[in-house]
Amino acid sequence: MQEADRVALTKQQREEAVANSKSLDELNGSIEVPENSGFWKTLKTFTGPGILIAVGYMDPGNWITSIAGGSQFKYKLLSVVLISSLIAMLLQSMAAKLGIVSGKDLAQLTRERTSKRMGILLWIIAELAIMATDIAEIIGSGIALELLFNIPLIMGIIITAADVLLLLVLMKLGFRKIEAIVATLVAVILLVFLYEVVLAKPDTLGILNGYVPTHSIYTNHSMLYLSLGIVGATVMPHDLYLGSSISQTRRVDRNDRKDVARAVKFSTIDSNIQLIIAFVVNSLLLILGAALFFGTNSSLGRFVDLFNALSNKQIVGAIASPLLSMLFAVALLSSGQSSTITGTLSGQIIMEGFIRLKMPLWAQRLLTRLLSVTPVLIFAIYYHGSEAKIENLLTMSQVFLSIALPFAIIPLVLFTSDKKIMGEFANKNWVKYTSWFATIVLILLNIYLILQTVGIL
Length: 457
Known about the structure:
The protein is an all-alpha fold and 457 residues long.
């Protein structure tokens, strides 16, 4: 055999080895599930992946939209938050089921069922979506560092590049530790906004009525546009890839139908519980905007505006205090850092699944983060650290996530409805039709949002 043939064979063998490797190989099946344990003990074992998923639904990219919705239209858009959360629960339960039943993540299955060129195209779109998500995390974390510690925004953005080391350290501690740390950060976010909402004394009856959809959402152009922003920013493409992978961190015997059914059941419960928490956080953000800022005629489109408003008695009244502002900044930093962890894992899943390339996690994450930091840093330098100008990138990043969304949702619905892949766990008819309806609506809403944003409509 010629030397070139041996090299080619070795390369082919390497590619096949990567193609046949497990998703997040170092974490896959790393958590043992006790046999014949009760409901609560089993649920405790399966609890964790859902909280990493939920982080994507309460990242800094969602904050401005939710608070703006409350400040402009009081509680009316709570119904949009509710509907978006229900769609998220449906899609994420399908993603978890796909990973558990097939033993592969969404990226791996998409790559297997497409040509090499299409696989590369889809990989590029998915990587750009990760970078767009990173932009929101970078901006949120950088501004939080400026607000908390008076660190110049440009320096804060550079510091965020160093958080690529965070997950590398956490990986050494085990996946359960990662879940616990993210859960702690989410708890901080939840408690901060719950405390601020309690102080704001919102109208309880108004809140309950807000969860009932109203026709004005469709007839009021501004309300419809903001509703589309809430929906478009809720379901993140990278979360679907992530969910299909980390659902496999629990050890499951795929030759045992009962074991697979149990894993699907408890993973779905975990996902739904954590997404309910994300729903509560997003509701609190909108309620806070309504209780404190509705009717004040204040311009609240930026993180810094919100920070300043919370300590301004002319805007929020007697409850205004520097403490509320600081708590807001702490929650913002917690949101950015928890999203960083999930972004790192998603990046690894997408790279290995689509292009079948294994590279050191630190190198993969450093490359992705540097590509994300660069445009933010360029904007920051060009606009001399102006928070308002830099935050315009948030809108651009959310628009791209809207563009990337169908490339993740459509394969997910197709695969989970395919009996050749899922067997008896394929989507039931009502799930299949509901998911297709939600998918089509999401795509149409996102297209409308994009056209609105670029000024065509």
